Amino acid sequence: MDIKNIVVIDDDAFVLDLLKIFIEDQDCKVLTATTAEQGLSIIRKNEHDMVLLDINLPDGDGLTVLKKIKEISSEIPVIMITGGSDIQVAEECMEHGAADYISKPFDFEYLKTSIISNFLGA
Fold first, then answer.
1. Which CATH number fits domain 4-120: 3.20.20.370, 3.90.380.10, 3.40.50.2300, 3.40.50.10860?
2. Measured between alpha carbons, how far is 75 from 119 in angstroms, rounded to an integer?
3. Going residue by residue through the chain (122 aa), what tens digit of pLDDT does each one get?
């Protein structure tokens, strides 16, 4: 698999660090953002292959951000990150084009499978 570029948007520094380490271990490059606006700016300015997007951000909800990402690049796979109480919102995001969603705490084997399967479709 070629090196892939993944953008991770989450306001929790611990989650960002955890995902960055995990994704880099999968031989991917990672760009991180702590706000919706910062994440959208990265997506507009950089080549990217996938986005991991938290549903709850300080400056926007995941569904709105997902729609903006899809306006920028309709083909990019977006995996939603959700807390246990956000499953209904995550499902709504999938109806609007999200490729998958993962719940916190992370099942890293599932996350790895989701990343790989979404790259194979890209």
1. 3.40.50.2300
2. 11
3. 566 899 999 999 999 999 999 999 988 999 999 999 999 999 999 888 999 999 889 998 888 999 999 999 999 999 998 876 666 777 788 899 999 988 888 888 988 888 888 765 54
